Amino acid sequence: MTVGSAPLSRADEAQVVRAIESTIWGLGRLQALLDLPDVEDIHITGSDTPLLRLRDGAVRRAAEPVADSDDELIAQLQYIAAHHGASERAFSSAQPMLNMQLPDGSRLAALRDVVPRPTVTIRRHRLVDVTLDNLLQVGTISVGIALFLRALVQARRNMLITGPPSVGKTTLLRALAREISPGERFATLETEYELDLHRLPRAPALLYAMQARPGSTETDSSTGTRAGEVSLSQLLHQTLRMSVTRVVVGEVRGAEALPMLKAMTAGMPGSMCTLHASSAGDALERLIVAALEGAGPNCSDSYITRLAATGIDYVVHMRHMTHPALGGAGRFVAEIAEVTDVNEVGAIALNRIFAAPSGGADPRGRFQMLPQRRDAFDESGIPLTFLHRPDVDQWPEPGRRAW
Known about the structure:
This protein is an alpha/beta fold. It folds into 2 domains: 10-123, 2-Layer Sandwich (Beta-Lactamase); 132-216 and 227-388, P-loop containing nucleotide triphosphate hydrolases (Rossmann fold, 3-Layer(aba) Sandwich), CATH 3.40.50.300. Helix content is 27%, strand content 22%. It contains 11 helices and 15 strands. Strands 9-8-10-11-7-12-13-14-15 form a 9-stranded mixed sheet, with helices on both faces. Helix 8 (257-265) packs across helix 9 (280-295) and helix 8 (257-265) crosses helix 10 (301-311). The longest helix is centred in the last third of the chain and has 16 residues, at 280-295. The radius of gyration is 23 Å and the shape is globular.
């Protein structure tokens, strides 16, 4: 404030204090966007005014840019990468991609040099301390789907959670992991922390929360990898030595697919992971391709297909769309498919337990048939009689959706 100028009002003074606090302890000018209650995604291109995607699907511009120049945005991101992640990360010409979790649990992805201008996407997880009952209340799952998913966890069935980006796969995986018995020792494996089970007020006591490490710009001549790098594949191998009963992989993208499938078939039943896919069938094809890419030339397609059919018991597919049956936009489970076998043409056969009815009147999953393989449920003392309940396909009324 210059000499002779009018003093700041209380509101302006409070705003200045918040800005200073955000710069020193928070995320600078980004913090104001993260504090907005209805924002789900934040898209930033250089010093342009950011685009915000809201909870109801609407898109609008922010009130002002978060940086006065593209170079200032890069400097902000470098500071955030060095000081606000679980571990220090670089964001430079040599390492132009940045992926990290912010202190509030949001996920930040940024690019520089390989794009015309620095670009940032921040995805916020609105439901963190979440259970299957919470997802039932907001319309993501039905009564029958909630009961069946709980039974799958208790019966230690291996699950693949699939769907397009931003559909809620991580949120559903988080809720499923909350169903694991408190007495079980299990591990979560992620490239960047998102599940955040270890940060919950009632965090599982026997949880190993593991995060991969990207490594430095220097290359280890003996391995050909970045110095200090720790991959998801390495973490998966390590869990075999730590007496865990199951693993929860935040997202399968590549080489970790093969060790994950081997873990699922070698003493870790009840493991779970997510995968980007457009359907249950597409998910299995993508998983097989990812496993083949990490397997080397001596591994056959038929072996990997058989391994996937043995390792994955169920595929849970999610969708996000606007539909009259939903009362607007919503995220929901559209399909739960049981993996039964490899058929005569070498493809994985699926038995759809829940699926959307034909005709398109309602895209949400409805009960179709009982699982073919029921031994695991019987051995766990879990009767599937709830699938015959009259409310098995009951969904919340349209308009109750909260995310």
